[in-house]
Amino acid sequence: MKIQRENSQLQAKISHIMMTTGRIDNKNDYERKSLGMEKRQRELDRITRENQEILLRLNRCKSQYDVRNWHQDWLKKLTVMDAIARYPGGKRRHQQETAIKKSSDKGAAMDEATAQHHYSVDNEVESNTKMKKK
User: How many whole angstroms separate alpha carbon 50 and alpha carbon 52?
Assistant: First the structure.
């Protein structure tokens, strides 16, 4: 009789487990911790503080370079480039505009800086060919 009762209780428990997900009695609420986590966090905080101090100092200091002077120097260089160029001034600008139009017709919009770069590369190639001819 006792065995019959224990078997029926066991069978009821097994059927309950099979119908449900079952009970988990081995939950572990332990949070994983790294042994060096606090030290790494302190180091990260120190680096962040130092970076913020550097940024603050950089924002406070005044620039040593004058944009106007840069622009004037660039204009002087352009006049020198026009003076020594194979196709002076108007021709060069006309070539740049033509290059921009051609590239925009192809669907790839080329800005003036890119056109200027292409022009400088072309000048280097031409100067190299002149050197070879001499």
Answer: 5
- CA 78/CA 90 separation, integer angstroms: 12
Global confidence as pTM: 0.32
How many other CB atoms are found less than 10 A from the CB of residue 89? 13
* Best CA proximity match to 84, nearest among 92, 94, 96: 92
Q: How far is CA 5 from CA 9, 16, 18, 19, 48, in A?
A: 6, 16, 20, 21, 69
Query: Which amino acid is it at 30?
Result: Y
Backbone phi, psi, residue 110, to 5°: -105, 125
**pLDDT one-digit tens code per residue, 11-59:** 998 888 888 766 666 777 777 778 898 999 999 999 999 999 999 999 9
And the tokens for 128?
Answer: 């190299």
Task: Kindly indicate the confidence band of residue 125, based on its pLDDT and cuts at 50, 70 and 90.
Answer: very low
